Amino acid sequence: MNYQWYPGHMTKAKRMMQEDMKLIDLVIELTDARVPLSSRNPDIDELGKNKARLILLNKSDLADERQNEVWAAYFKEKGYFTAKIDARSGAGMKQIQEIIREASKEKTERDRKRGILNRPVRAMVVGIPNVGKSTFINTFAGKACAKTGNKPGVTKGKQWIRLNKNVELLDTPGILWPKFEDQSVGLKLAVIGSIKDELLQTEELAMWIISFLRGRYAGFLSKRYQIEELGTEPEILEKIAFARGCRLKGDLPDYQKAAALLVDDLRSGKLGRITLECPETLS
Ligand code: G4P
Fold first, then answer.
1. What is the pTM (predicted TM-score) of this model?
2. Looking at ligand 1, which residue's alpha carbon is closest to its atom 5?
């Protein structure tokens, strides 16, 4: 499988983000808590240098709780402000205002020394496709906040969402592209469904999932499908096929259907809370 693709519009998106960066104080970067590194593009470190930085582990409801803690500590140790959230349900969102205040302390202090009081912190949400940027903005902004109009000179053509008197959020998120440094990044993004389905071979993904789960989450497959986790990957997929009635004519296993079912179950969290990468196994 080859995941190397880079649509031309991403170059434009990056240029636009560079422009938007000039308008903001704080970068709120969303990652997918199941693949916190593979769902980042480290270029943001260069784009967002000199800005306050907040990394959010989103979809933490789908990720392994213990690994959420490990990753939060990892990013914190690297100097980022960080929090785990579930933007869809709103879990973990309450703390964000306070973290933003904390992350912007330096800027507020600089302003104060220059005699500027009460200038709101301007923030921008960034992340690769499908990490939950729109969901986050909707949940965070809620219904209560008003959209501010264009402010001539300073924010021409930009829409800001005023969250409260202290924080304004750019209403369109910045889109980054995943960094396919090695094949495993593309593979993991494919597994969680961040890369379009037509590029994938479901059965190949299923084999990878089976192998990965047996290594790190032993017992998850047997619990979900009431099967024994013994044998080769294709043999296990066959067991899943039979357990779930995925059969072709002549009572042959329908591997394709079983693979699709397995992939869906993983993506939706039905197999359990799973994190696909952890700092200690990074090479
Ligand atoms: P994007 O702007 O970064 O591209 O992502 P978007 O908000 O569109 O979210 C992508 C998908 O991820 C959506 O699902 C969204 O509901 C889901 N999502 C976002 N945040 C969370 C979270 O914290 N937990 C979980 N479990 N899911 C989250 P979808 O299937 O595309 O749409 P829908 O079925 O929700 O309508």
1. 0.91
2. 132
